[in-house]
Write a structure and sequence with these properties.
By secondary structure, this protein is mainly α. The chain is 74% helix and 0% strand. It has a single domain (7-194), classed as Tetracycline Repressor, domain 2, CATH 1.10.357.10. It is elongated and about 65 Å long.
C-alpha cells in the first residue's frame, strides 16, 4: 500500500528549503531544479506544487500572514486581554516574540526581498497587500477604544501606521542587527500606546 503524502506538509518543506536556497544562492541564481534537488524531489514533482520561484515566495508570505491574521483577529476582540490599548499591545508583543522565535526564516524572507529588489523584482506590493489587514485591525481597535472612552481622540490612520512602522522596524532589527532587545522594544510600544490612553 503506497504511503499517504501530506501535501500541505510537503509544500511547507519545499518552502523552507527554497528560502534557504534563495538566501545561499541569491534569488536570481536560484532555480526550481536546485530547490527540487535540495528537497530530495524530482523537478516534475516540485512543479505539482509550484510553477516558479515567485509562486514559492508568494506562498511564504501568504502562509505567514494568513496564520498571523487568524491569530490576531481573535486576540483583537478577546476582552480577557484587557481594553483596546491592552489588546493592541498584546498583538505587538506577540509579533515581536514570533519574529524572534523565527529569526532565521525572517532573515531568509528579508534576504530574498533585498536580493530580488537588486534584480528589479519587487515583492513589496505583495507584502503590502497581505499586511494591510493588520493596519486595519489596529484602526478598528483604536476606533473601538475611542468610542468606549479608553483612548483619547486621535488620528487613527496616523497612529495605526505608526504602530505598523514600529513593527516593521523591529522585524528588520531582528533579522539584521545583533543588538535587538525584546524588552526595550516592548517597553517602547507600551510607552507609545500609553500616550493615547485616557488618564483615570
Amino acid at each position: 500500500m503506497p504511503k499517504k503524502i501530506d501535501h500541505e506538509e510537503r509544500k511547507v518543506k519545499i518552502l523552507k528549503t527554497a528560502l534557504d536556497v534563495f538566501a545561499k544562492e541569491g534569488y536570481r541564481d536560484s532555480n526550481l531544479s536546485l530547490i527540487a534537488e535540495q528537497c530530495g524531489l524530482s523537478r516534475p514533482t516540485l512543479y505539482q506544487y509550484f510553477k516558479d520561484k515567485d509562486e514559492i515566495y508568494y506562498y511564504a508570505v501568504k502562509l505567514v500572514t494568513g496564520r498571523m491574521f487568524l491569530r490576531y483577529g481573535q486576540m483583537a476582540w478577546d476582552e480577557t486581554l484587557g481594553g483596546c490599548v491592552d489588546r493592541i499591545e498584546a498583538i505587538c508583543n506577540d509579533i515581536i516574540d514570533v519574529a524572534l522565535n523565527n529569526e532565521a526564516a525572517l532573515q531568509s524572507l528579508m534576504d530574498v526581498m533585498l536580493q530580488s529588489k537588486r534584480d528589479h523584482v519587487d515583492f513589496s506590493t505583495i507584502i503590502m497587500k497581505r499586511t494591510v489587514k493588520l493596519t486595519i485591525l489596529f484602526k478598528r481597535l483604536l476606533n473601538a477604544g475611542i468610542k468606549a472612552g479608553e483612548i483619547i481622540q486621535c488620528d487613527i490612520n496616523k497612529v495605526s501606521n505608526h504602530i505598523f512602522t514600529l513593527l516593521e522596524a523591529f522585524c528588520f532589527q531582528i533579522a539584521f542587527l545583533g543588538n535587538f532587545s525584546a524588552d526595550e522594544s516592548k517597553d517602547f510600544v507600551a510607552t507609545y500606546l500609553g500616550a493615547y490612553r485616557v488618564k483615570a
